[in-house]
């Protein structure tokens, strides 16, 4: 083809370049290897955003390219959400041969990107402000359809519904799983995949999140890492692009009972706020601030002890501890179905301890616990460590000030906070120091793991008892759709 633009104007080599009609005017049009379309209009060079061609269709003699551009640039000023806008770019090749070649090159380019072709989508209509169905229909589904991605949609009808489905589904039918929800459905999906006999294969299936719940900590962590706004549109685009990254999975065990966590574990103040604030769920994420203030005014402290294996560089925290309190890992039987946790050889580690009383003990796998809570600013997705945030004592006024710093992560700089990384962890929870007949709540990923005596809704059954539990980390075990 002729009329190539100057090479120094292009961000990457041209795949195809030819003269076409755009808005009735003949102009050179170029598709680059990076997925940009370049052309001239009214004497000015224009282009689409890199790798944001979603799909294309042929309409008689014209080719309609469905594009996605960054707001404020590119080819259009369409309806925006987040930092992106959707707009079609239409051009007319000057011959049948040219049109066929354009279609072949566009198809080859889209195929080369490795984008997902079929997704299983869970929509949780009960999470947060109960807006997931509306978000999916208005923001998510149209983008997936524009990208020619086939969807199998499943609304969750009750707690653990998603877990039941992924535990027995045919994973070979899909290129990924999408959770239009808060973090709860993601946790169900990971636990369901890990309970499968073919968990090694199943965990290679990428999981994507679209924020539609109260917390949305995982998708906030993914998007914020690269400076992208946490919105349904931004999250959907990240899934369409098909990039993936690995994610550490924490195995929480108590005897033979196991739970797999991807976000956090909390005991004390943070757990009390997270779980007891559910009475204000209709408020969305604001429920945490409102109930957090109430909980600080009537502050609780808990007796107990934590043991941990510090990551390199954090050996000065706590005091040396015996490993006699650490349960030895049970040998894994080949007959057992599902993932049984990492072979950590806990008894061979150098353990340290911190004794209570505690205001709060918080373990985090990723930076953000919610869209407005940068709980662990140094947390990484797959470094093989958990970030531990411990508060033993803190005046109420100082604690109120700390709570305002959760939005930017500077709370970890407080002299009242110990912030470190650990490879393994043991929690021995105790009773409240002001009312010894009352115990607390252990919360993992927004769900109650254990309820102590006379705690909130203590009559409800929990997965584990309010007793010693231990946590180990398996580096990079799960797979997530990621913006980069």
Automatic annotation (TrEMBL):
The keyword Nucleotide-binding applies. Its main location: membrane. The keyword NADP does not apply. It is found in: Vacuole membrane. One of its GO terms (cellular component) is plant-type vacuole membrane. One of its GO terms (molecular function) is sphingosine kinase activity. SUPFAM superfamilies: NAD kinase/diacylglycerol kinase-like (SSF111331). Its EC number is 2.7.1.91. Residues 114-256 form the DAGKc domain. InterPro entries: ATP-NAD_kinase_N, Diacylglycerol_kinase_cat_dom, Lipid_Phosphate_FormReg, NAD/diacylglycerol_kinase_sf, YegS/DAGK_C. GO terms for biological process: cellular response to abscisic acid stimulus; seed germination; sphingosine biosynthetic process. Pfam families: DAGK_cat, YegS_C. It is a peripheral membrane protein. Keywords: ATP-binding, Kinase, Membrane, Nucleotide-binding, Transferase. This is sphingosine kinase. The lineage of its organism: Eukaryota, Viridiplantae, Streptophyta, Embryophyta, Tracheophyta.
């Amino acid at each position: 083809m002729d009329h190539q633009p100057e090479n120094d104007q292009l961000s990457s080599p041209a795949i195809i370049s030819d003269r076409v009609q755009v808005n009735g005017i003949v102009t050179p049009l170029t598709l680059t290897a990076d997925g940009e379309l370049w052309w001239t209009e009214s004497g000015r060079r224009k282009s689409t955003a890199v790798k944001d061609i979603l799909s294309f269709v042929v309409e008689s003699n014209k080719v309609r390219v469905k594009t996605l551009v960054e707001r404020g640039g590119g080819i259009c000023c369409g309806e925006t959400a987040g930092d992106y806008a959707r707009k079609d770019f239409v051009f007319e090749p000057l011959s049948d041969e040219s049109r066929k070649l354009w279609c072949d090159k566009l198809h080859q380019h889209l195929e080369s990107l490795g984008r997902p072709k079929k997704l299983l989508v869970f929509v949780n209509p009960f999470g947060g402000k109960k807006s997931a169905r509306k978000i999916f229909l208005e923001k998510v589904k149209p983008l997936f359809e524009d990208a020619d991605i086939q969807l199998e949609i499943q609304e969750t009808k009750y707690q653990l519904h998603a877990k039941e489905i992924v535990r027995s589904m045919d994973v070979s039918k899909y290129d990924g799983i999408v959770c239009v929800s808060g973090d709860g459905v993601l946790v169900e999906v990971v636990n369901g995949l890990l309970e499968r006999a073919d968990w090694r294969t199943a965990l290679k299936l990428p999981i994507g999140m679209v924020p539609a719940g109260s917390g949305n900590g995982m998708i906030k962590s993914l998007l914020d890492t690269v400076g992208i706004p946490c919105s349904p549109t931004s999250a959907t685009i990240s899934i369409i692009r098909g990039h993936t990254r690995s994610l550490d999975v924490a195995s929480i065990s108590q005897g033979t009972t196991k739970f797999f966590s991807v976000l956090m574990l909390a005991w004390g103040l943070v757990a009390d706020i997270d779980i007891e604030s559910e009475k204000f769920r209709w408020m969305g994420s604001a429920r945490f601030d409102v109930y957090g203030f109430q909980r600080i005014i009537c502050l609780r402290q808990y007796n107990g002890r934590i043991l941990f294996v510090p990551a390199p560089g954090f050996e000065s925290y706590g005091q040396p501890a015996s490993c006699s309190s650490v349960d030895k890992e049970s040998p894994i039987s080949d007959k057992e179905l599902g993932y049984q946790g990492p072979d950590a050889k806990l008894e061979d580690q150098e353990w340290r301890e911190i004794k209570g009383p505690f205001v709060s003990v918080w373990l985090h796998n990723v930076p953000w616990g919610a869209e407005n809570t940068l709980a662990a600013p140094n947390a990484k997705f797959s470094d093989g460590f958990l970030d531990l945030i411990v508060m033993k004592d803190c005046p109420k006024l100082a604690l109120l000030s700390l709570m305002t710093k959760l939005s930017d992560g500077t709370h970890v700089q407080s002299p009242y906070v110990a912030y470190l990384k650990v490879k393994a962890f043991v929690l021995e929870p105790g009773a409240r120091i002001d009312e010894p007949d009352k115990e607390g709540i252990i919360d993992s990923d927004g769900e109650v793991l254990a309820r102590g005596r006379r705690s909130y809704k203590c009559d409800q059954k929990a997965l584990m008892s309010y007793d010693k539990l231990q946590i180990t980390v398996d580096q990079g075990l799960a797979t997530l759709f990621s913006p980069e």
